[in-house]
Each structure stands twice: as structure tokens, then as C-alpha cells.
Recover the amino acids of this structure.
């Protein structure tokens, strides 16, 4: 895999030091390359793995192709080279090797249907899977209290706060029963206080259900607080993912963001991001055309 393990004195900055063989990954991306046109490659031989029950965050510059990675994993796009393997034990909707329907996806916007109640929005994914409506409603009603949604069944999206709407969106994804969840900056539109509440809420729900999560964010603190590992991309196109292992004990709360382990991991991530920005800036300057004064023989006209 082209995942870099930054060297450091403590155990939190590298993985696999014990030499024990890791179990088969639930999600394995191997040498994935993709671009929307021949002039711009977004992903160049990218590889990473996610184990069952693992929470992994991806930090990368804006426009570098993070959301495209999600579309490739979900089977909405196919890599131009390399492979994406999901070992979920459930068949994809597009055939034997299809990835369609094997992951749950939660985008930046909640995408709730305004004409449907909270209950009807939450069961939508199961209905699309062909689950009988009565069975879907029973399952959603059973899970609503743990998502902080008890008593909201008959409300409509416009009656909910932004945080509550995101809870409905996440519930809709979880009840579909997929083992892998793709969360694309789900809290980016929320105010700071609601965002902190939602981060702690997500941690408590994840501790209960333990789906594997790949989480996209631009917020370094958010990535460190939530994750078992953080994968940092420092360049575009994405070629290498630098791995930071977050060896803080669980369960966690926002109070952990002032601890020594958190500070050390944050320093490492910020160093990587700063180095990537500096390298990119230098590369852009070196590739820019150099304007020179014309010689006397050439003249000015």
C-alpha cells in the first residue's frame, strides 16, 4: 500500500509495529487511479485499507478528489486502474462484483425529502432495498431513541434544527444495514456549538453500532477526536496517504482535545499539511513560465 507511516519516537505515529498479521480488510483500495479527463488525474495509484469496526478520517486539500474517492468506493464510478474490494459478504445490486448498495453514504447536505415526515425519510433507504414497509418502520422506531429522535416521527424536515436533520440522515444510512459508512463532511454546515454536540453524539452512536466509517473532513480537531487513524493527503493529485494512528483511549469526549496525546498528533498532522502546501507552492513556482527581456538584436517591437 502507498500509505506512509511517519517516523516518530512514540507508538502513535506508526502502525503494524508488532509484526502481527492484520485480519482481512473490510475495505481494500489497491493502486486506484482515476481522472475525469486525460489532462487532470485526481488519484494516482492510491491504496489504503479499513478494518471491520474501524473509524478512519481522510484529510486532504479542497478539490483534490476526496468526494470522488467516495463515489469510486460506492461503485458510482470505476477506477481507470487498480481495484476497490469490499468484503461485506452481501452481493452488490449491479451483479456479483458490484459495489452498489454495499456502503451507506451520508453527504454534506442531509438530502431529506421535505414532503416526507421524519419517520418516512428514515425508512426510505430500506424501502428502496425492498424491505416491507411495516418491517422498516418497526426497525426505525426501535432505533430512533438512541439517535435522539424519539417523539419526532411525525415532524417534517423544516421543523428540525440542522443537527437534528443530520441525525435523521445518519439514521437513514445506518438502518440499511451496511457494514461501511461513508460520511462526507456531514457537520460542515453546522455552527461551532452544534458541531461539537454532533461530534460527541456520533461517537456515542458509533460506539453502540460499530460500523466501519470513512469520514471526510477539513477540520483537524474533528478528525483526531473521532478517528482510530487519520489519512493525510498533502498534494493534488493524491498519490500518497500519510497515516497517523490516534492512540487515545475510548470512549472519548471533546475534553480529550486538550490532552497531550491529542496535541502531539495534531502537531504531526499540521506539519504534514504545511509541508504539502509548501511543496505544492514551490512546484507551482518552478513550473511557471519565466519571462525574460528581449535582446537588443531581437528588438522590443
Amino acid at each position: 500500500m502507498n500509505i506512509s507511516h511517519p517516523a516518530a519516537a512514540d507508538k502513535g505515529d506508526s502502525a503494524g509495529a508488532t509484526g502481527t498479521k492484520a485480519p482481512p480488510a473490510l475495505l481494500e483500495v489497491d493502486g486506484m487511479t482515476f481522472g475525469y479527463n486525460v489532462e487532470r488525474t485526481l488519484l494516482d495509484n492510491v491504496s489504503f485499507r479499513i478494518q471491520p469496526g474501524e473509524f478512519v478520517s481522510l484529510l486532504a486539500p479542497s478539490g483534490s478528489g476526496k468526494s470522488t474517492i467516495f463515489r469510486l468506493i460506492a461503485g458510482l464510478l470505476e477506477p481507470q486502474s487498480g481495484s476497490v474490494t469490499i468484503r461485506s459478504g452481501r452481493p452488490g445490486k449491479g451483479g456479483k462484483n458490484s459495489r452498489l448498495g454495499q456502503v451507506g453514504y451520508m453527504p454534506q447536505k442531509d438530502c431529506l425529502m421535505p414532503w416526507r415526515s421524519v419517520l418516512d425519510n428514515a425508512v426510505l433507504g430500506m424501502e428502496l432495498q425492498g424491505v416491507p414497509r411495516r418491517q422498516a418502520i418497526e426497525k426505525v422506531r426501535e432505533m430512533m431513541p438512541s439517535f435522539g429522535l424519539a417523539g419526532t416521527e411525525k415532524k417534517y424536515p423544516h421543523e428540525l434544527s440542522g443537527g437534528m436533520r443530520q441525525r435523521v440522515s445518519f439514521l437513514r444510512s445506518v438502518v440499511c444495514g451496511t457494514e461501511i459508512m461513508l460520511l462526507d463532511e456531514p457537520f460542515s454546515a453546522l455552527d461551532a456549538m452544534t458541531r461539537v454536540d454532533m461530534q460527541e453524539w456520533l461517537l456515542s452512536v458509533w460506539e453502540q453500532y460499530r460500523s466501519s466509517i470513512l469520514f471526510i473532513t477539513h477540520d483537524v480537531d474533528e478528525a483526531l477526536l473521532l478517528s482510530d487513524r487519520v489519512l493525510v493527503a498533502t498534494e493534488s493529485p493524491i498519490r500518497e496517504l500519510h497515516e497517523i494512528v490516534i492512540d487515545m483511549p475510548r470512549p472519548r469526549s471533546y475534553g480529550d482535545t486538550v490532552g497531550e496525546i491529542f496535541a502531539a498528533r495534531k502537531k504531526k498532522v499540521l506539519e504534514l499539511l504545511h509541508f504539502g502546501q509548501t511543496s505544492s507552492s514551490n512546484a507551482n513556482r518552478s513550473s511557471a513560465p519565466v519571462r525574460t527581456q528581449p535582446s537588443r538584436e531581437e528588438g522590443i517591437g
